[in-house]
Design a protein that fits this description.
43% helix; mainly alpha; single chain; 3-stranded parallel beta sheet; 7 helices; disordered C terminus; 9% strand; globular
Amino acid sequence: VINGATVVYGDGANPDLVKAAGVEEPASLVITYRSETKAVNAVRRLRRVFKDTPIFVRASRQSQVRALMDAGATNVVVEKSQVAEGICNLIGVSQGTITAQSLLDAVPPLMWDEEDPATTLPYTDSELT
């Protein structure tokens, strides 16, 4: 119990397992798989059973959002977008005053996985200026 709410940790992609843990009507479900395939499959399975429950999902890249929303996610949090916004907040710069390239220069290369950072940046220059 955290702040009066029952929180169950574990592989909850199986709705029967969620119910077996005593969660008949969850207030919300959070999916944080790194794998897009696992996340999409989990959202589909859970949405079939928990039709009105908000399902919040973590995604690594903006390109994953559509598949997760189509599977039934209520909202998707994109890591890279959140990191970019966080950096802007930390350095006190409005997102409207910087360019995509300046974000690339500010973010450690490790966060871009093996992909080309120029193609995975969550914002385009036109969206930031």
